[in-house]
Amino acid sequence: MSVASVSRALNGHGGVTAETAARIRQIAAQLRYVPDMAARSLITRRTHTIGVLLPDLYGEFFSELIRGIDLAARPRGLHLLVSSSHGDVEEAALAMRAMQGRVDGMLILSPWVDAAFLQANLPAGLPVVLLNSALESGEYGVLNLDNYGGAYAMTRHLIAARGSAVAFIGGPAANYDARQREAGYRDALAAFAPGTAPCVLPGEFTEDSGYRAGLALLALPTLPQAVFAANDMMALGCLHALRQAGLNVPQDMGLAGFDDIPIARYLDPPLTTVEVRIAEWGRCALETLVARLDGPPAAVPEDTLFAACRVRVRGSCGATTATASTGSITNP
């Protein structure tokens, strides 16, 4: 029996009888034969592996994002090689260089990404899709959330529901998402509560930083009527601080977050938040990358937004329904 016949049978390409194919597979199973993927990649020039670089792997947001990417990858016979930078530029560079030759393309969510950084750490021609990036280049795909629009809509809703005194817990200074969300907050405050000074507290997108921001809020001379955290994890930490101080949410202070992680709806009270279809975003990112793998990369379209982010009204903001003036808002 020829090597070609064995190869066709094991790869399901036909060209051999059903009886022969069954016999080959039986012998392969008895011998515990496993295809040499490294050798196969030398022939096909494909590893059938996608690299995924994230700033962290901790928390529901990143687990949902990876789940969405993986659900789209598996039916296509693709596997994931996942790494994180832990907020460190050198770690991001090391992770990207370590994936060279091991992946067919990369999905990158990193605050350190710019054209010079990518060119220094990635081989020329590697298909790449960037997530939540300010980079505008036809060389790379870009798929962003509407961070600004979601934060603008949420701030507008909180002002309509609670009043003009809305505080904001920001994210890491170098983070594109955080900057866009703070800009949306500031612009909505200026538009719908003119003359009200912004109240921005620092955060790091973690529960602990949200807790510290909650303590800082409690130390203010006058408590705000509502607080909008730039992600749900910080909102959760802030809620803990407010409860420890004996405050009731939403009676004493409204609270809102951003991302709509799965646990948000199960908090007490359920968290009003900006809805991001995280797993769907991951699926769309993988499909965008596959399109670049299968054909020449097209120029990045002017509109690289994945989808508009909607305000999801739940109990923590003190409004039972969306007000007529708030626009892109839904109830549970």
TrEMBL record:
InterPro entries from the UniProt entry: HTH_LacI, LacI/GalR-like_sensor, Lambda_DNA-bd_dom_sf, Peripla_BP_I
Lineage, opening ranks: Bacteria, Pseudomonadati, Pseudomonadota, Gammaproteobacteria, Lysobacterales
Protein name from the UniProt record: Transcriptional regulator, LacI family
Domain of life where this protein originates: Bacteria
GO molecular function: DNA-binding transcription factor activity; transcription cis-regulatory region binding
Alphabetically ordered keywords of this record: DNA-binding, Repressor, Transcription, Transcription regulation
Gene3D superfamilies membership: 3.40.50.2300, lambda repressor-like DNA-binding domains (1.10.260.40)
SMART domains: HTH_LACI (SM00354)
Residue stretches making up the HTH lacI-type domain: 1-44
